[in-house]
Amino acid sequence: MKIEYDKEADVAYIYLKYPIKDGECKKTVRLNEDVSLDYDSSGKLLGLEILNARKILSKESISEAIPA
């Protein structure tokens, strides 16, 4: 697992598979206005995009993330 965080945009991406190759993500499911899930063609979860990350993730998670 790898977490990237863009401080200016306050967006985090949690990779469950890294790297995700171009075109590998076949389906994105939006859970709510802040969280989206990316899946491959077989339905395997590849990663999560989190908008407004400071509201959702712990300070520890964000501080350990790699800058995007």
Account of the 3D structure:
It is a single chain. This protein starts with a strand and ends with a strand. It has helices at 53-56, 59-64, and strands at residues 2-6, 11-15, 27-30, 35-39, 45-51, 66-67. It has two helices and six strands. A six-stranded mixed sheet has the order 3-4-5-2-1-6. The relative contact order is 0.31. With 68 residues, it is mainly beta. It is globular and about 35 Å long.
Mean pLDDT: 96
Order of helices and strands: EEEEEHHE
The number of distinct β-strands equals 6
Radius of gyration: 12 Å
Task: Assess the beta-strand content as a share of residues.
Answer: 35-45%
Biggest sheet: strand arrangement: 3-4-5-2-1-6
How many helix segments?
A: 2
SS-based class: mainly beta
Any idea what the shape is? globular
Distance between the termini: 15 Å
Largest sheet: 6 strands, mixed
Low-confidence stretches: none
Give the proportion of residues in helices.
10-25%
Provide a brief overview of the structure:
The protein has 68 residues and is mainly beta.
Key terms for this structure?
single chain, 68 residues, mainly beta, six-stranded mixed beta sheet
Outline the fold blueprint.
Blueprint: E1 2-6, E2 11-15, E3 27-30, E4 35-39, E5 45-51, H1 53-56, H2 59-64, E6 66-67
Parallel strand pairs: 1-6
Antiparallel strand pairs: 1-2, 2-5, 3-4, 4-5
